[in-house]
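Quick one from the shared queue. A colleague (R.T.) flagged DUF559 domain-containing protein as missing a structural entry in our internal table.

Convert sequence to structure tokens.
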Amino acid sequence: MEFEEAHGMFINKHLTERLGERRGRLVRGHNYAEKLFLQNVWWPLFESLDDLHPEYEVYDWNRKSQFLDFAFLPQSGGSLGIECDGFQSHVKDMDRERFNYAVNRDTFLTGMGWKMIHFSVDDLQHRPEVCRMLLQLVLAPHLARKSAGVDILSEEKEVLRLAWRLGRAIRPKDVTTHFSINFRTARRLLHSLSEKGLIKPVVGRRGVRHYELRPMHPEQKW
């Protein structure tokens, strides 16, 4: 399925499920920047809009209704809020009170279990590869290739997070140094991630030299 068709079905589905202000907010709020995020960042990575909710209603500490540009809510749990920020509306014309509220809202949502991330419209339009890299970095511990069909253990998630932080191929030595574990354990964790299709071994004359990250897709185990 092509993006335009998937996007049309995505919006129509959520419109039919909403009434009142929640429906009106979707009609008014899902515009150029939000579609740009889906088209340039999310779709190229995952080729699916499943478990994404546009203009998702949340409440602050005063029970005041607010709307996130997107919420990613996989069926097995976890809450990721995504905001697409334009300079004009989010910075230049924002007074101190609105700025303070925006900061406090994100902190409050974090305390309530949300993981909040922001992308600038300029980056969505001109540097989408940076946005894709950052989104994968945020989701890396919670993602697995669909073909793998397996869960990632907690210690493996931490190794995967380290690999993203390094921004290069990861070696057993990197794992032993960072986590203060022995070489055998480091090699076992890397081998397990390789078996699950999350990293790719690079073989040299004396065996596996290091491991490279593979592209990742959403999976239902958070």
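The longest helix spans residues 96-111.
Residues 144-149, 217-222 have pLDDT under 50 and may be disordered.
Added to the table.
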